[in-house]
């Protein structure tokens, strides 16, 4: 039951993504046109301090007109190491530089539409380097007790699926 991508052509692109139109053959032999969004990888990172608090950003997403807690994240630049990109994004968006990063998980947030892969990391320590360079990314940055994360997700305070998955995995790793 595999779909086969016979050909793709670009219909739009910018520095962040490309929209392609794919000619797809279905398992029954019929064909259809399917739009595909091609994106650069995304890297995200957070830290957990000695008090088992996780560093999060409170931000508004205009596309869905929703507020929620997230990890610092951004696109991986061409030729950039993914973990280095995660560390860079965390420092730019929070003012905290992570220590050694540990892979948390990699997810495909919408694999029926896009080839995006989000690589999420965490660190057991971080040090303050100063005010965030990209403070416009969020309304505030806070250390949140990791033990309350599942309840926050249940209340809809972490609406992004990739962020919820990462935080639940981190909760499991740290608190069991």
From TrEMBL:
Pfam families named in the record: NUDIX
Cofactor(s) required for function per UniProt: Mg(2+)
Gene3D superfamilies, A to Z: Nucleoside Triphosphate Pyrophosphohydrolase (3.90.79.10)
Record keyword Hydrolase present: yes
UniProt xrefs under InterPro entries: NUDIX_hydrolase-like_dom_sf (IPR015797), NUDIX_hydrolase_CS (IPR020084), NUDIX_hydrolase_dom (IPR000086)
Nudix hydrolase domain sequence ranges: 38-171
Keywords: Hydrolase
Gene Ontology MF, one: hydrolase activity
PROSITE patterns: NUDIX, NUDIX_BOX
SUPFAM superfamilies for this protein: Nudix
PANTHER family: NUDIX HYDROLASE DOMAIN-CONTAINING PROTEIN (PTHR11839:SF18), UDP/ADP-SUGAR PYROPHOSPHATASE (PTHR11839)
Protein name from the UniProt record: NUDIX domain-containing protein
The species this protein was found in: Streptomyces californicus
């Amino acid at each position: 039951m595999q779909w086969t991508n016979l050909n793709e052509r670009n219909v739009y692109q910018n520095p962040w993504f490309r929209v392609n139109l794919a000619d797809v053959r279905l398992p029954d032999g019929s064909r259809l046109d399917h739009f595909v969004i091609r994106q650069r990888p995304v890297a995200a990172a957070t830290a957990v301090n000695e008090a088992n608090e996780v560093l999060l950003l409170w931000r508004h997403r205009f596309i869905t007109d929703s507020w929620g807690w997230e990890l610092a994240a951004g696109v991986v630049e061409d030729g950039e190491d993914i973990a280095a990109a995660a560390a860079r994004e965390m420092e730019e968006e929070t003012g905290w530089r992570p220590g050694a990063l540990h892979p948390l998980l990699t997810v495909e947030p919408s694999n029926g539409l896009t080839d995006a892969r989000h690589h999420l990391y965490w660190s057991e320590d971080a040090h303050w380097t100063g005010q965030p360079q990209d403070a416009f990314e969020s309304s505030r940055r806070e250390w949140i007790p990791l033990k309350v994360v599942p309840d926050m997700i249940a209340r809809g305070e972490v609406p992004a699926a990739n962020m919820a998955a990462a935080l639940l995995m981190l909760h499991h790793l740290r608190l069991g």
